[in-house]
């Protein structure tokens, strides 16, 4: 099964719900790629010996890896951490996540400042580009096991919105402007 993504509704209900619009408005992998979001479907049961994962890591320079179990039983201050992850932010570097078990949502902003919800399930590996506004939450299952990949030592520093003057945000917006061939208002 391929990655599922859709435009979100404007509801303030529980962040762990799907938040589909009515009718549903699905988002293609091609559209995500235009935003700089990359995707691979891998075998999470064989991640330790997966040659495709090894090739991705080698090609993209991901030389650091760790595993993260997110659930109320394994994370102290779980609700507070989930709230922090759900605060809209950017990073200076790519955010690379590979879902090994469970499920959750990455939300990203498109060029028109609309939220797109990406449902991560086992086998989904995504790369969010540096400078894209995004956030993360678990879904109603309240469990996900993620592999985090980094170039070099891990740095996970969120820069909460607004960050329009941040150099990495400007670079991201410039890239969108070039890709779409039109001026894109910074969000």
Largest sheet: spatial strand order:
2-8-5-10-3
Q: How can the largest sheet be summarized?
A: 5 strands, antiparallel
> Structural class of the secondary elements?
alpha+beta
Rounded to the nearest angstrom, the distance between the terminal CA atoms is 32 Å
CATH names the topology as: Jelly Rolls
H-E string: EHEHEHEEEEEEEEH
Question: How would you describe what is shown here?
Answer:
This protein is α+β, with helices and mostly antiparallel strands and 187 residues long. It has a single domain (8-152, 160-180), classed as Jelly Rolls (Sandwich), CATH 2.60.120. The chain is built from four helices and eleven strands. The protein has helices spanning 29-34, 51-60, 78-85, 167-180; strands spanning 4-7, 38-41, 64-70, 89-90, 95-102, 104-109, 115-120, 124-128, 134-138, 144-150, 159-160. The strands form three sheets. The chain has a five-stranded antiparallel sheet with strand order 2-8-5-10-3. It has a four-stranded antiparallel sheet with strand order 1-7-6-9. The two termini are 32 Å apart.
